[in-house]
């Protein structure tokens, strides 16, 4: 046990102090903090208040547009301006935009003048305000009371709900959008961590082997104990990075009002979202464990460090295939038979089953089955990693087939 801990600590702390770990972890943390404070950062680089001129002969129209828009946009000021001064005011940057309002037989039309092309959203907002004013004027001409006008202008409420057949559970569109966002974020995080640490363990094992350091190591430590300690050390570093990322998210929720911002976006921690987050964390862990141990096996089979890229190619292709199957197929068409089958295939299920669970129709037991399959797979891979290192530690065959046969011999 003492020798195991010595190898584990050496691997863990050397990786923990490496520049790659420190830089990538800090980048992740800064990105999360940046997203949590996106509104404050935007305000820092904002030019200040926007100034919009309204050109109209009708004071009632001017007052209505100004009052309505100022209530919606507190960082924007509105003032009346003559048509002859608009172009010069834009050139002198005294105003950002100008609303030129025209009236023709009770119908309102507008032109937006600006130094930069106005967005479609800005056009729609002005159109909505003018339509409301125009409708009110027509209603008054028709002699409608204030109550009748209120009933007339009350918009219809349209919402969406997806009913889960059989169990009666449902989710709204916001919940569906957040589920897709969680899957997208989790899948990218899983892919990055797998590629990073799979490459690290493979290089670690192959470097020891090709530099003949392993010849000295096996005289003091059993090969099987050494490889398990080394894999455990790399996995512990990966877990440390995941914990650091999770702690940063929690800190942002507590100290930077991220929770309030999510509530402002109608984000609710529903049973469906909770289930998805829990399974996402579990699949992140077992996905990293699976691919890292598999990478250690591939590193054992490498005779030359120059061949490492070629040796890791199967793992990279397998991981990318899993990622794209889960990200595209499962989200867009989770009931597809191919996707259902792939969600129980080893190496694919961390991505595919995770994505399928974003759909409420996917039963929880499918996620549990995928977890059990992968726990068994991890144990099998650990056994092969130990056996391959023990048998191939002092062999340097150039062909991968010969190296594999020797590694798996009794």
How would you explain this protein's 3D organization?
This protein has 410 residues and is of the alpha/beta class. It has 2 domains: 48-153, 3-Layer(aba) Sandwich (D-Maltodextrin-Binding Protein, domain 2); 169-407, no CATH class. It is 68% helix and 8% strand.
Brief digest:
One of its GO terms (molecular function) is ABC-type transporter activity. 68% of the residues lie in helices and 8% in strands. With 410 residues, it is an alpha/beta fold.
Helices, strands, pairings?
Elements: H1 2-16, H2 19-36, H3 38-44, E1 50-55, H4 59-72, E2 76-80, H5 86-91, E3 97-104, E4 107-114, H6 120-141, H7 146-153, E5 161-163, E6 170-172, H8 173-210, H9 213-217, H10 223-255, H11 258-264, H12 271-300, H13 308-311, H14 313-332, H15 337-342, H16 349-356, H17 364-392, H18 400-407
Parallel strand pairs: 1-2, 1-3
Antiparallel strand pairs: 3-4, 5-6
GO molecular function, one term: ABC-type transporter activity
Subcellular location: Cell membrane
GO cellular component, one term: plasma membrane
